[in-house]
Amino acid sequence: MGELHLDIIKDRILKEYKVEVDFGRLQIAYREIPFHKLTDTQNIETKISSSKQSITVKLTVEPVEPPTKMKDVLKLDKSPEYASNIASIFPKHLVAVKQGIEVGLAHGPKISCPVVNTQVTLHLLQLGKGTSDTVIAATVTQLVQKMLREIGTSIMEPIMNLEIVTPAEHLSIVMADLTRRRAIISNVGVRGNSKLVISKAPLSELKGYSTILRTLSSGTATFTMELGEYVKMAPAMESIAIKNVRGF
């Protein structure tokens, strides 16, 4: 939903229901990715009621770039050292492991955003008799989150594919504004009697852009945008993003 749509809804709520609406700051859907590869093991022995729960799990967490190389978030280590153990794992236990991984990757250590482009390899899973699927999933989640804290993560920001149609007399000022917004202009063409500017720009730099573009072009320019990709942020820009998310 665009900012104009939100403004229209806000106006309708005020007119129809006489309710004042305050919008919070626009939240950017950042992502996180691990810095490097790490292997670790977790051993848990506990009692739930009268049932003893015992589990040993060994995982490797690593970034995968490009993500097209990754078929699934969970990879099984079928090397000679671990093949027999992996082959003996019941399918329902593998489901619990995968659920634990997905929960562990749901919130990164830096700004609590989803961790993406990441693969987790299961090397070893040893279970005591009667160990529940819930304990398996929880142990895997704890290990994944612990490893992510040790590795550290980079923040990835959404980059939008942006197309702007503007009269020629406003082209230079529109392009200058795009450059200021860290945009990369890939092409300037013609659409009818207007100029077509094709570019990529970080979503964080496009807050309120519809209003700004109308001002720059005296209401004559239009634009469309859609999500293109996520890219790692430079350290200086990452610091700004962290401050914006945390509020300090």
Give an overview in words:
- It is a single chain.
- The chain has helices at 3-17, 83-87, 91-104, 133-151, 171-180, 209-216, 235-246, and strands spanning 31-34, 38-48, 51-63, 74-76, 118-127, 153-166, 184-191, 194-202, 222-232.
- With 248 residues, the chain is an alpha+beta fold.
- The chain folds into two domains: 36-151, Ribosomal Protein S5, domain 2 (2-Layer Sandwich); 155-246, 2-Layer Sandwich (Alpha-Beta Plaits), CATH 3.30.70.240.
- The strands form two sheets. Strands 1, 6, 7, 8 and 9 form a five-stranded antiparallel sheet that branches. The chain has a four-stranded mixed sheet with strand order 2-3-5-4.
- Helix 3 runs parallel beside helix 4 (133-151).
- The mean pLDDT is 93.
Short description:
InterPro entries: EFG_III/V, EFG_V, EFG_V-like, Ribosomal_Su5_D2-typ_SF, Ribsml_uS5_D2-typ_fold_subgr. Keywords: GTP-binding, Mitochondrion, Nucleotide-binding, Protein biosynthesis. By secondary structure, the chain is of the alpha+beta class.
Helicity, in percent? Answer: 25-40%
Q: What's the overall geometry?
A: elongated
Strand element count? 9
Proportion in β-strands? 25-35%
- Could you name the CATH topology of the largest domain? Ribosomal Protein S5, domain 2
The overall number of domains is 2
- The average pLDDT is 93
Ranges where pLDDT stays below 50 over 5 or more residues in a row are none
CATH architecture of the largest domain: 2-Layer Sandwich
CATH class of the largest domain: Alpha Beta
| Terminal Cα span | 28 Å
Instruction: Decide which structural class fits the backbone.
Output: alpha+beta
Number of helices: 7
Largest sheet: 5 strands, antiparallel
Radius of gyration: 24 Å
* String of helices and strands: HEEEEHHEHEHEEHEH
Domain Elongation factor EFG: 154-240
GO biological process, one term: ribosome disassembly
Pfam families: EFG_C
GO molecular function: GTP binding; GTPase activity
